[in-house]
Amino acid sequence: MQQFSLPILMAVMASLMPVQAQSILDTIRTPDKAVPTVNEVLEGTWLQELRRPGQPATVPPVLNLGTYHADGTVVASAADGTQSTAHGVWIRVGDRKFLQTMYTFNFDTNRVLTTVFKVRINVLLSSDGQTATGTTELVIMDGTGKVNATVPGGTFSAVRLGTEIPGDFYDFQKLP
């Protein structure tokens, strides 16, 4: 009977010893199947090409610089010089999908207010988060806010801008 006791005692003791087992935190992910996470926000500065509703394909798009803030606000400037700086808001509404509304004042050649634009925008962020495309709906109002027209069908493309290293960066870093 003693021959059986020793192996049983050893088995019981071995089962009581702490074992370095992997936790679920170590095994839940499958790295070879993982898709990289994209920071699904618009925060940052973007260069946009705007195609206004009804704009002929032969007319070049209007360039626009937009800066999106973490609090859901955005400020943008069009390169055509016909309107004020645009101000607006944005929210995430789905997987890489956003809604945005922008407001601009438009002026005649004497800088007299002629119309107010409200632009409703659908934004689709690329899977890598570096480009975006979308559609727009333009609401044209007079200076009192009376709606004169609503024009769907605008489109845009955009690229996220990033910091770039100047040619003298490494020399500059050596300065005292």
Here the CATH topology of the domain at 44-160 equals Lipocalin
The first-level CATH class name of the domain at 44-160: Mainly Beta
Please count the beta strands (DSSP E, at least 2 residues each). 8
Side-by-side strand order of the widest sheet: 1-2-3-4-5-6-7-8
Alpha-carbon distance between the two ends: 83 Å
Oligomer: single chain
Mean pLDDT: 85
Query: What characteristic shape results from the CA principal axes?
Result: extended
What is the SS-derived class?
A: mainly beta
The H/E string reads: HHEEEEEEEEH
Indicate the percent of residues in helices: 10-25%
- Total of DSSP H or I helical runs spanning 4+ residues: 3
β-sheet strand percentage: 35-45%
What's the story with the biggest beta sheet?
8 strands, antiparallel, barrel
Question: Judging by the overall fold, what is the CATH architecture of the domain at 44-160?
Answer: Beta Barrel
The radius of gyration is 29 Å
Ranges where pLDDT stays below 50 over 5 or more residues in a row are none
